[in-house]
Amino acid sequence: MEHRSQLVQMRKKIIYTGLWKRYLAAVETTKNISGITDPLNIAVLTGFILCDELNKAEQQLEEESIEVNRRTMKLISKLDKALKIYDDE
Fold first, then answer.
1. 37 — alpha (psi -120 to 50), left (phi > 0) or beta?
2. Neighbours of 46 (CB within 10 A)
3. Each residue's pLDDT expressed in tens, for the chain with a length of 89 residues
4. What's the Cα-to-Cα distance from 57 to each of 14, 28, 37, 71, 73, rounded to whole Å?
5. pTM of the shown model
6. Domain chopping of the chain, boundaries
7. Nearest Cα residue to 50 out of 28, 70, 72
């Protein structure tokens, strides 16, 4: 059980480290693009930018999910028709 706990902790550390690196990169990008020098303003603007990116990613996933669902339903419909033809024989 302890081994599993260590694996979970390692995974969390990797995820948090990745998120931290992403945030730091976003802060640098914000500094370079905006020319803002105040750390608080940079942090707030970076937060807005990251929230916007997250919102766009969520919208894209939702659109992709809707498309996958539509294709799945179409495939199910075709399979139902094929099975009905087979059952009628």
1. alpha
2. 21
3. 677 787 778 888 888 888 888 889 999 999 999 999 999 999 999 999 999 998 999 999 999 999 999 999 999 999 998 888 777 66
4. 21, 21, 29, 21, 24
5. 0.60
6. 2-88
7. 28
